Amino acid sequence: MTPASETAPLGGFPAPEKKTLPRDSAHETVLCVKDLKVYFPVKKGIFKKTVGHVKAVDGVSFDLFKGRTLGLVGESGCGKTTVAKALVKLVPAHQGQVICKGRDLLTAPAPELRKLRKNIQMIFQDPFSSLDPKMTVGNIIGEAVKFHRPGEDVKKRVQDCMEITGLRREYDKRYPHEFSGGQRQRIGIARALATEPAIVIADEPVSALDVSVQARVLNLMKSLQQRLNIAYLFITHDLSVVKHISHDIAVMYLGSIVEIFNSRDLKSGTVHPYTRALISSIPLAMPGQKRNRIELTGEIPSPMDAPPGCGFQTRCPYKITRCETHRPLLERVKSRHTVACHRWKEIKFS
Amino acid sequence: MSYYFGFMHRFSSNWKIFIQNPLGKAGLALLSLFALMAVASFGLHLLGPMYDPMTGVDPVVSRSVGPSTSHWLGTDFIGRDILCQLLEGAKIAFIVGLASAFISIIIGTVVGMVSGYAGGIVDILLMRLADMVMVLPSLVILLIIAALFGQLNIWMIVFLIAILRWPAVARVIRSQTLSLKQRPFIEASRVAGASDIRIIFKHIMPNVLPLAFLYMTFRVTSAILVEASLSFLGFGDPGQISWGMMLQWVWSSGHMFQAPYWLLPPGICISLLTLSFYMVGRAMDEVLDPRLRREGQ
């Protein structure tokens, strides 16, 4: 496979913007998520009585900015994927707002929602099961084009998308099984880009790939972002990946965001005890290098009956009584850095 | 062009698996034989009016006689050629089997996909309906309908068999749909903005069709048997010769134990044709389900 030249001007796509905005300046908000809650009812008995709710996502708020990447990290089962699925309405949200282009996606009626979907596309985790095995690559990528860009030359558009993702134009007649994992993920990326979305949600897009292929796909995503000015919500459990691609990082724990910070602060600027513990678990590249790993004890509470107060209280070494009763809200630490912890000012990390 | 290659490649590799299976080989050979018989029946009029399976009577024979040079399998009780009737019967068996199987997989596939995809109350209603139809004894229902409305024509029989035999297909397609609708590629097309109808017919249907065709072969078997039974009991289409009807004539004219040359061929044909469809189905099953393949294939 010959990767497409990264600098060649391409038909149908805007040329890369030469003028780069200074960091930390105000970026245009393209997606605003407010207090998103996704509860799954737990049903029991022959009458399917609802006996409780699994609070998979419990009050998540964040903004996505044009041309920027927000990395969403957290351990398995903390609700990362549920957030992604709720944003594209693959799972119904219980409460909250997802505002895109001034419209709330969660309350938009079906015909309008189908139009809004053009702006927000998704890259899936598993490149094998996310492509219909009975469809040609051209049809897979072209499906969304047909809905959202009627009257356009679908074939040309598809081939343009394939080219910028590093696939050969003439591969559009082939079937997914004829491609390798990395190539399939490129197909997935091409599909997500086909409608020229403002926002792309990437749900662990590289975790099913080999490490060598991972880097290439990540670099592809990065260069596409620079060229097309897309906002990414990049979901992963792999902190070394998130460091590489994200401008901002949001850390999730038990269905809510505990800290959002600029990725420059990853090494030493974070203040939440969970973020600290998570970062200390990143393996170091140099052998022999010493690291202070923070070992957490205690159990994660079940999302079905989460305790009142802070979700992290069962494992937090800095817990006080206030943590058991009052749920911490996101507080501003500095520009582009918020944290949900009662004691962030007091805790001194060594 | 490469679409064509992809298709041909898959076809040829599946064909290899199919033909390596002894059941597939034997089934296909038998099936081709019967297909030849059915095709040959279209040439019967070339032999002259004497060999018309329905009306052609040998002017010198007025009772059932055994095989001879002019009648290779003998004649029936009024002097009609048994071989000609057998060939005509093969045509009818194919028509009845394939047509009713085709109709029943169409009904079954649509019901199964809708039921599995929609879920909830639609699923419950459709599946209870399927249960109700499934427990109906097809032959008895057909007999009652035939008794109520007089003689049924062959297309009516085809349609009734199809109407009574879709639930098993619907069940299988539903379960496959349940598994398919959880796959990420369905989610992906929903994110792209596809409607439910489009997802069902563009994404789910191509993925369940191989299974539907597999079940079609089994439906053919049962349709042929039901039609043969109905005809044997004297409720078939009187305007069409079928193997079941030949057996009925053997029995009603009292030749059950006098004319083995007349009794055996239709009986053997019914068994072998249903067997061959069954064997082809089993071999196709192996193509579709790799777990059934033996090591090293």
Rg of chain A is 21 Å
CATH superfamily placement of chain B? MetI-like
Instruction: For the largest sheet of chain A, list the strands in their spatial order.
Output: 6-7-8-3-9-10-12-11
Amino- and carboxy-terminal Cα gap of chain B: 29 Å
**Helix fraction bin of chain A:** 25-40%
* CATH topology grouping of chain B: MetI-like fold
Mean pLDDT of chain A: 85
How many DSSP-defined strands of chain B?
0
Strand content range of chain B: under 5%
Are there runs of chain B of 5+ residues with pLDDT below 50, and where?
none
Oligomer: heterodimer
Tell me, briefly, the overall form of chain B: elongated
> pLDDT average of chain B, as an integer?
88
Tell me the CATH architecture of chain B: Orthogonal Bundle
Largest sheet of chain A: 8 strands, mixed
Total beta strand runs of chain A: 12
Order of helices and strands of chain B: HHHHHHHHHHH
